[in-house]
User: Which sequence fits this backbone?
């Protein structure tokens, strides 16, 4: 494991749109220079590395944006502690005097990646991780809500603050496609939190002759998403718009063996286990995936379908609700609401 101390080559303040939190109070961005920038070559250079980190604030809300040389997925470990897989970099950023909430970012390399600790002057109330895009590069956004009360008075920083770079607008931060609306679900919950009360137990009309057998079958299936007859593979494919065929399962299995952090492959493996009938193994895969990414709506849908298969209506409904709170794309949200109405 290569351990290197990165030097901050740029440290300046610039505005960063935090939709829908814009305008942001301030942002500190830096580009980290690795071993190649220092003229040092290494044969054991890791496949991935952190290429940029950005900080944005507005009131008690803070966003930490991590951009890697390749696609990086950040997982949560504890309050203020996260894990960036596939990177092996040591980095420490002092934000005193430049940020009101976060005071220091500390990256520490360890087997399998690097641990990120966000240290602040106030207690952390809640945080969430989501995918975002910075200058057309995929990134991970950590949204943190700090408490109003100050835990400990920060030490005054005698060092002079760097002057703001005038005329530099900085990169444009956009939400990933389908996630343009919200940052904190607790601050502005999605509109489709639950299906209408009347939609939970739909009244089925007697099928007419012109309906045809296809419509009769659809109505019968729409009335029952509970019990041992639930086809998890079919329901997951319709809700998520994905295919879980035997070839897809084999591809996901090979991908996960090659890369233990291939989270998309873990989702496929979970549904493939459920399709094979091993619900305990499938639920274990989904629970392990949610430990890394608590807002993974696909894994939450998988657990909801398993609960529906077992006949646990309340548990399935609660898990579908958690999937909606994770803010999936609009089409998937509509299909999740439709599935809830069939419980």
Assistant:
């Amino acid at each position: 494991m290569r351990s290197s101390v990165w030097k901050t080559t740029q440290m300046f303040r610039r505005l960063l749109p935090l939709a829908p939190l814009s305008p942001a109070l301030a942002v500190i961005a830096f580009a980290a220079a690795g071993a190649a920038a220092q003229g040092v070559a290494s044969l054991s250079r890791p496949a991935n590395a952190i290429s940029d980190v950005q900080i944005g604030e507005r009131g008690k809300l803070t966003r930490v944006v991590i951009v890697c040389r390749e696609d990086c997925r950040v997982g949560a470990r504890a309050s203020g502690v996260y894990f960036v897989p596939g990177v092996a970099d040591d980095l420490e950023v002092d934000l005193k005097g430049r940020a009101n909430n976060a005071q220091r970012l500390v990256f520490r390399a360890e087997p399998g990646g690097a641990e990120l600790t966000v240290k602040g002057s106030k207690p952390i109330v809640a945080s969430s991780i989501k995918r975002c895009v910075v200058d057309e590069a995929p990134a991970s956004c950590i949204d943190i809500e700090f408490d109003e009360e100050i835990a400990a008075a920060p030490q005054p920083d005698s060092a002079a603050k760097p002057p703001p770079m005038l005329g530099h607008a900085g990169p444009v931060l956009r939400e990933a496609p389908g996630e343009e609306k919200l940052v904190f679900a607790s601050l502005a919950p999605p509109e489709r939190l639950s299906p209408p009360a009347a939609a939970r137990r739909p009244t089925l009309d007697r099928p007419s002759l012109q309906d045809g057998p296809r419509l009769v079958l659809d109505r019968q299936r729409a009335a029952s998403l509970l019990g041992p007859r639930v086809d998890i593979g079919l329901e997951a494919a319709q809700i998520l718009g994905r295919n879980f065929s035997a070839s897809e399962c084999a591809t996901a299995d090979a991908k996960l063996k090659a890369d233990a952090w291939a989270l998309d492959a873990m989702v496929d493996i979970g549904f493939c286990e459920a399709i094979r009938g091993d619900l305990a193994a499938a639920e274990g895969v989904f629970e392990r995936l949610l430990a890394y990414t608590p807002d993974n709506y696909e894994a939450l849908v998988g657990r909801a379908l398993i609960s529906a298969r077992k006949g646990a209506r309340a548990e399935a409904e609660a898990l579908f609700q958690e999937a909606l709170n994770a803010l999936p794309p609009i089409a998937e949200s509509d299909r999740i609401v439709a599935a809830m109405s069939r419980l």
Summary: Residues 7-175 form a domain with the Immunoglobulin-like fold (CATH 2.60.40). Helices lie at 212-222, 232-240, 246-258, 263-276, 279-292, 297-310, 313-325, 330-340. The first strand starts at residue 7 and ends at 8. The chain has two domains: 7-175, 197-340.
